[in-house]
């Protein structure tokens, strides 16, 4: 803007008029861009505000620690919280070794060539599969074919596959950020490739891999569609007894409260509480990931 | 000896790595195996173009056109929101935000992206739907407009972050050259930087679209759920994902209805697959064009 203004000062009147119009266009354009950004921030603020202000009233110690009573109108949602934790833990335990192995293979063993290209396309497409399709896959393979039934195991495996691309891409980023010279130094000292990976590269990439894990926890904990037919139930008596039992889960519980049952008003109140819990869980987890990553990037730039 | 150990470790990693491909292949296989049997009941053409989706009436009718159009309709509406919001935010971050603003705004967008879809759905149901119903004096608030708004907001951080990456790949020299010949910042942005990042931005839009069309819980909760061909944004719709999620529980295993839902999932998978491949191809060409090797 200043550049155009300065240029306009020395020009004939007609050209100066044009540059004024230009700077008007620029002002309007920039204002529009600001409005787009503001709209996003506004929506984030609105969601946080409404869920927090109405959800806080529903949350108390009993809500967090008790089982539901009187057909979901009283008591707490503790089994749903526990269920979500089990499902998320199971999914990460399943996806972590596979995801890290895939990333190691892609960056350390075979960064080029047809197999890596094929893998990359596969992983990208796996990331784009709609979540409800994962649910159908889990239903057919884990629930029916392997006979795990509607259970924590089936749900965790289904969610794990969904988390796989997240863990792979974060781990890949972490591994490629390890300088080549570090690998070469290790190899030059006589270490084999596996020793280099295990003792040098993986420890260096650990914080980045951790970020990926945390991000995937945030993603998995909030997913509903994949557990609709593989793990979730609206009401289960007490806490889950074994990995083969059906569970209540926070996200599914919100859905069920809003679509089933006979006391819409009380249920909506409970759903607000559950939404706030879920939101707090997911957002604090992703905030941690964002902070770790920012710190790391800064460290990288400093080095 | 040592060599053999090293080689077997490499193969072990390869085997683990290819498990993700196995899952993708498994998904495709399952969709085909469970989806195709529906064509014993209804022809492929009748399935795709049938205007009546009455899976539980006697005899049942499996025309997915209303569901397909429902998905496309809601997604089109979402695009009207997420393209300006997403691309606008990316341009703002790229051109106007200083380092301090960026340090706040980028995490804010990431947080907006990580809000679970069920929470968006719940928000849409209890806050946005009654609000829109009031503003437009609609008979019901749960309609494709509400779904589009929510999906648009959900997809816009995705669009913004990919578009911003694309903008940051445009070499500085482009910008300097444009400013040097007397263009102002707005002209530089709209006529030089945006066209140069054009295919990256279209990748962003395609991926945002892919996310919107595959989104399940929000549309299940706020789109209204009626399986009719939409005529306006105020009509309630039943997108494909919502139909699968809502009806799978009540469809008897192995019944035509069950297979029809898998066939819908197959259709959905193919649509998103095409989007993803298109995005991949465009972004690859774009990198070549700008001389980026990544």
Task: Describe this protein's structure.
The complex is a heterodimer of chains A (303) and B (294). Chain A is an all-alpha fold and 303 residues long. Chain A has two domains: 2-58; 61-302, MetI-like fold (Orthogonal Bundle). Chain A has twelve helices and two strands. Chain A has helices at residues 2-9, 13-55, 61-65, 78-109, 114-128, 131-145, 152-177, 180-188, 193-222, 225-228, 250-259, 264-302; strands at 68-69, 74-75. In chain A, strands 1-2 form a two-stranded antiparallel ribbon. Chain A is globular. With 294 residues, chain B is mainly α. Chain B has one domain (46-289): MetI-like (MetI-like fold, Orthogonal Bundle). Chain B has 13 helices and two strands, in the order αααββαααααααααα. Chain B has helices spanning 2-17, 19-35, 44-49, 65-96, 99-114, 117-135, 144-169, 172-180, 185-196, 198-214, 217-222, 240-247, 256-289; strands at 53-54, 61-62. Chain B has a two-stranded antiparallel ribbon. The longest helix of chain B has 34 residues, at 256-289.
Helix-strand layout with pairing:
The complex is a heterodimer of chains A (303) and B (294).
Chain A: H1 2-9, H2 13-55, H3 61-65, E1 68-69, E2 74-75, H4 78-109, H5 114-128, H6 131-145, H7 152-177, H8 180-188, H9 193-222, H10 225-228, H11 250-259, H12 264-302
Antiparallel strand pairs in A: 1-2
Chain B: H1 2-17, H2 19-35, H3 44-49, E1 53-54, E2 61-62, H4 65-96, H5 99-114, H6 117-135, H7 144-169, H8 172-180, H9 185-196, H10 198-214, H11 217-222, H12 240-247, H13 256-289
Antiparallel strand pairs in B: 1-2
């Amino acid at each position: 803007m200043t550049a155009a203004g300065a240029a306009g000062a020395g020009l004939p009147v007609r050209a100066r008029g044009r540059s004024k119009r230009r700077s008007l266009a620029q002002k309007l354009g920039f204002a529009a861009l600001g409005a787009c950004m503001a709209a996003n921030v506004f929506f984030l603020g609105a969601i946080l505000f409404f869920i927090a202000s109405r959800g806080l009233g529903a949350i108390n110690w009993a809500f967090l620690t008790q089982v539901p009573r009187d057909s979901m109108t009283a008591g707490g949602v503790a089994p749903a919280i526990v269920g979500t934790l089990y499902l998320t833990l199971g999914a990460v335990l399943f996806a972590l070794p596979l995801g890290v192995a895939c990333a190691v293979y892609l960056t350390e063993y075979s960064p080029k060539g047809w197999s890596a290209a094929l893998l990359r396309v596969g992983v990208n497409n796996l990331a784009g599969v709609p979540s409800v399709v994962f649910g159908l896959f889990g239903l057919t393979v884990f629930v029916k074919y392997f006979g795990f039934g509607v259970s924590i195991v089936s749900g965790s495996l289904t969610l794990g596959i969904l988390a796989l691309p997240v863990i792979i891409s974060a781990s890949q980023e972490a591994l490629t950020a390890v300088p080549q010279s570090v690998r070469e130094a290790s190899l030059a000292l006589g270490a084999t490739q596996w020793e280099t990976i295990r003792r040098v590269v993986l420890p260096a990439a650990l914080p980045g891999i951790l970020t990926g894990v945390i991000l995937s926890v945030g993603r998995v904990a909030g997913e509903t569609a994949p557990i609709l037919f593989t793990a979730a139930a609206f009401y289960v008596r007490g806490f889950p007894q074994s990995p083969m039992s059906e569970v209540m889960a926070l996200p599914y519980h919100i859905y069920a409260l809003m679509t089933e049952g006979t006391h819409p008003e009380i249920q909506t109140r409970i759903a607000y509480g559950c939404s706030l819990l879920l939101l707090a869980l997911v957002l604090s987890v992703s905030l941690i990931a964002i902070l770790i990553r920012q710190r790391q990037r800064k460290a990288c730039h400093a080095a | 000896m040592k060599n053999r150990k090293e080689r077997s470790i490499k193969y072990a990693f390869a085997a683990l790595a290819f498990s993700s491909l196995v899952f993708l292949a498994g998904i495709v296989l399952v969709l085909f195996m469970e989806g195709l049997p529906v064509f014993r009941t209804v022809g492929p053409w009748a399935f795709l173009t049938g205007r009546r989706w009455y899976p539980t009436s006697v005899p049942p009718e499996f025309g997915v056109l209303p569901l397909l159009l429902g998905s496309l309709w809601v997604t089109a509406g979402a695009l009207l929101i997420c393209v300006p919001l997403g691309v606008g935010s990316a341009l703002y971050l790229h051109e106007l935000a200083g380092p301090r603003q960026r340090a706040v705004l980028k995490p804010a967008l990431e947080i907006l992206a990580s809000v679970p879809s069920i929470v968006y759905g719940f928000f849409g149901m209890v806050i946005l739907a009654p609000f829109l119903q009031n503003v437009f004096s609609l008979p019901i608030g749960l309609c494709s407009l509400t779904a589009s708004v929510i999906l648009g907001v959900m997809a816009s951080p995705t669009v913004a972050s990919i578009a911003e990456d694309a903008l940051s790949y445009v070499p500085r020299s482009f910008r300097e050259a444009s400013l040097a010949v007397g263009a102002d910042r707005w002209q530089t942005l709209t006529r030089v930087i945006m066209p140069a990042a054009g295919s990256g931005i279209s990748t962003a839009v395609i991926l945002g679209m892919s996310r919107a069309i595959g989104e399940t819980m929000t549309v299940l909760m706020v789109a209204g759920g009626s399986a009719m061909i939409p005529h306006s944004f105020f009509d309630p719709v039943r997108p494909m994902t919502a139909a699968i999620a809502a009806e799978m529980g009540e469809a008897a295993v192995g019944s035509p209805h069950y297979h029809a839902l898998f066939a819908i999932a197959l259709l959905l998978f193919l649509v998103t697959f095409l989007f993803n491949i298109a995005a991949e191809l465009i972004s690859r060409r774009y990198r070549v064009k700008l001389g980026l090797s990544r």
